[in-house]
Every structure is written in C-alpha cells, then in structure tokens.
Amino acid sequence: MSRRDSGASSIASRRSRRSNTGGEGDSQRSKEAKFFEECQAAYVAVLDDTHDAITSRSQLSSVLHQSGRNPSQKTLDKYWTAKTKKLTYDEFCDIMRKEKPTTTSDLLNAFKKIDINGDGFITHDELSRVLTQRGEKMTSKEVETMIAEADDDGDRKLNYNEFCKMLMSTASKCRQLSKEKIDKKMKTERKTKEKAQPASKLGKDTSPTPHPRKRASINKTLPPVAKVAPKATEPRNLKSWNQTHRKGCCLFEHGKLVSHQYALEVSTSTALWLTVKPMNLHPETATDGPLPDIRVYLVRQRDDGTLGDLVAFTNLKSQQKYCLNQDLRAGTYRLLPMTTGCRFKPRERQPKSKAQLTKKDGEDYAILKPFRNALADIFELVDLDGNGTLSREEFNIFQLRTSGESVDDDAWEVVEENFELKKGELTRKGFMDLNQMEANDLEGDTDDLWETLHSMGFADDLKLDEALPFVIDVFTDKCKSHIKALPLQSGGSALEMAVCDSVMRSSEDRIKIKEADDAVMHCLAGDAIFTVVVENKSSSKFSLRMDCGKSSNCSSSRPDLDHTLVIPSRAAVVGHHLMPVKESEDWTVKCTETVIT
C-alpha cells in the first residue's frame, strides 16, 4: 500500500523533532541563568510582564522572533493549535528550549543556495522570485519594502553577507534593549519595596538575590529498593476475577512524552486490581540495570469525554510491577500511563552510521533483515491486545502515529483485499507484506520508511531506544471490564494535575517555602520514587530554584538535579521526581529551594 494509492494512506510517517537537552560546559548553572534571562527579555519585550499569558498566535510569533528564533508556519502550528487559548511564560520557556535561534551561518547558507554564480550578490528579481514563490511566501509589497531598506546604493543587487550581519546586529540590539528594560523595571520595583519597608530594615543588605537557604529543607535517606519488602498484596481469590490484558508504549514527540491511553468502563460497582510493568521485547538481551518506571493514574471520564478528578494511582510496587487496589463505582474512567523520566530519557547518543533498509532485487526492493526485525518489533508495539493480529482499531492507532491520517473505509478495504487476514484482522505476515509493497512503491527512496521508524522510537542504527513498551493487566471481581485503546497522546494538564494531587493527598512532609507567600513543598516517598510537588496558593507567580545537587545515588526527571522552574499562581507543579541510580544501595535526597526574584 503506497502513499500514491487513492484507497489507502502510506505507512510512512512524520519525523519526530527532539530537543537536545545535553550540552558541554564548565558551568551548567550559569547557562541556565543566561537562558532564563533570554526568555524573560524576549517575553517582556512583547507582553510587558511574565505574569501575562500569550493569547494569540501572532503574539507567540512575535516573542519567538524577539528571542532570535525564526519560527515557520509549521512550527507555530505545532505550538498553537486550534484548541490553544493561551500559553504561559513557563510553557514559552519550554518552547525556547526546543527551537534553536537563527545564526548568521543559517542565513548565509540559505542565501548561498540561490546565489548561482557565487559572487556574494543576489539581484532583486531573483530574491523577489524566491521569497514570493517558494516556501512560506511573502507578498510582493513586503519583499520590495525589505529590499529597499537593504539596498543602500540602489544598484538592484543585495550583498547578502552584509545584509546578514545587519540582520543579526539588529536582532542583538533588540534583545539588549529588552534586557535593559527588565533591569530598569527590577530596579524600580526594588526601590519601591525598600521605601515600603520599616526604617529598621532599610539598613539591611537586600541584594544580591536570590538568597539561598543555609540548610537543605529536604534531607532524607532511603533504604535500598532491592531490599524493601513489597507493600503490594494481591487479592487472595484473584484467579477467579475477570482479567483484561493490554499493551502500550511511551514515546518521545518533540522532546515530550506521549503514550497510549485507555478508556475503562465497568457496568457495576466492583473491586479493581491493576498492575503495570515495563515490557522487554527481547528478554535474551536484557541488561542488569534497573528498568524504567511506569505508572498508571486512574481518573474519572465525564460523559463529554473530558477528564475529571483522580481516583487512584499505582502507588504500590512488587518487583517490576506497579499496582493499585481500588473500589470503583459503575462508570467510565481513563487510564493515564506515565513514566517519570528519571531513567527513560530522550536519546543523547549519535549513531555512527545509518542502517541500510532495502536493496535492489531484480525489479523489486527487498527488505533487509535488520529492517525486518525492526518491523517485527513495531508489530509487537502495535498489537495492543496481544492476540497476534492487528484489528482495524489497532492499525488505525498506528497510522495516526506514523502518518497523522486515520484509516477510512476505503483504506481498510485495500488492506482486506491485498494482505493476509485472520478473523478480520491483519496478520504478522500481512503486515510484513504491506511494508514490502511500500518499499517497492518507493523505488529505493527510504525517507518515508525512516519516518515510520523514527516515529516509533528507533534510532538510525535501528536500536529501539526512544520507546518504553509496557503491559497493563486489569482485574475486576463483579463484572467484566471493557477497555478501549486510544491513540498515543500527551497526558497534558490532566496528567500533571493527577500526579500533583496524588502527592498532595498522601504527602508525608509539607514544607513551607519561607521566601514565598503561601507556597508549600509536598514530599512523597514511594517504594522506588521520591516526588516533590510545589503548591502555590497565592495570586502571584514566582520562579523557584530546586537544587538537589547534593543528593546521592539519585537521578532526576529534570535535565539536571539543580533545576529552576516557574510556579504559576494558584497551581501545583512537580519539582522533581527522583529515583535511585543503583537499587542495591541507599539513596539520599537533599534539596535546597531558593526563590528567584
């Protein structure tokens, strides 16, 4: 089945963009501080204050341009969808991490592609033709205005080397003006605060900020996970309960986690026992290290499909399984899988070479064994009920992930007519034959095949290192549950709220943040995960540096143990998830919080 077939969509898929969270340097902290300075400078240049939200697509475009980025329409579509109402400053900072600023080299390379004779000049007619007819088109009036400003001598030629330098210099000056605007505003605010203070306090040094606490607010040593007795206890008569089995996976999309979700329906009140664990597609090559964590949050699903309050989560651990035991009322619920990111992280390594996928075989293109093995793994990831075949629903979820297109009646009819089925479902052989036909139709061009592989978590060397497969087993004692698999998607605010609620409900320690008004840190130590949630009850937003750098035998869900985040007003945010690097050893969590002013 090919992209060119009118009856079906291609197996090929969109490429995933990944943010590079790594980087070398002597001072990660200074880089982090500089990054937030750049974010703030760009933001206030357009919106005056970081407490204000971005409320339109054009505002987002303006702020990104102010930061030195050059967002395409496709980039803006990614962050400002039809459902987007606003973006907070914190969300803007996340976007800034993913989108690289435009460099002089980027601009020069673009101009060189249309400089046919390589003399460093482009005629106005050539530039106008490119800008009005290719890519994201400009109007003729916009192009003429731009060229007129850049053509100093009026010879109808553009020295693009000088033009690029002028553009970058102007952008730099704009960013500097924004920074000066922030500095001036902060000085004014500081003077206002000093005037409002009692006379006895005016003599005290109020700078520099932030003021770090002398002692860690959180200091807790936990025993080796491998030696902790499991707290989860299966119901005694579990074998007589109704069981439903589902598979799924977590993947990275633009540096953010997405996963399968599930709608769970029970027809009557029942007890629920649910377990989830990572799934190794190749047990024979398993490593000795600890597996990534995987949890499930159970929330109510309203009649209109929106999600409600948290009901329960897998807070108990038994070996590699995370478990929950809960009494449910009749109704519909949503299962939201989640991994903290302490162990399952975006790819940092760069494969040395790119695997060959096909080779010419007469008039056809044969799929090579490494690619065939990767397709076999994809089949396992897509076979969500584990019955060895792909239903139309499962194949549709796969197509949505890899091509963004659903499987309509015509497309499924093509599958039924051309490939092996069993009880109306696509067999493993049929899936392989379908991909073989795709390879032949592409006539040696493997770009679309690579897009499919990348979207399912494969690297260029065909190592599956950006996918976390898992298995969910649901047991109910009073009725048979119905579970509907949903497309891979982000848990979004519903999952964030569920995680925060789970910690705030069960937290063992509540620590007041002295430098912030009405803000608290909630700490929950689970069997293998330590989570800190910051709750801001005030009407003001603030930035908080959470330095866990003195922790031992710990890995964080954040890019670094020393992390700064923005806490919106009247909201709760996960500060850190922490897990032991070595489960056979003690692990100590130490965290010092500092409000950034």
From TrEMBL:
Tree of life domain: Eukaryota
Gene Ontology annotations of biological process type: positive regulation of protein localization to ciliary membrane
Regions of compositional bias (Basic and acidic residues) in chain numbering: 179-196
This protein's UniProt keywords: Calcium, Membrane, Metal-binding, Repeat
Any one annotated GO CC term: plasma membrane protein complex
Cleaved signal peptide residues: none
UniProt subcellular location: Membrane
Residue ranges of the region described as Disordered: 1-32, 179-218
A Pfam family hit: EF-hand_5
Domain EF-hand: 102-137, 138-173, 370-405
GO MF annotation: an example: calcium ion binding
Protein name as catalogued: EF-hand domain-containing protein
Species per Swiss-Prot/TrEMBL record: Patiria miniata (Bat star)
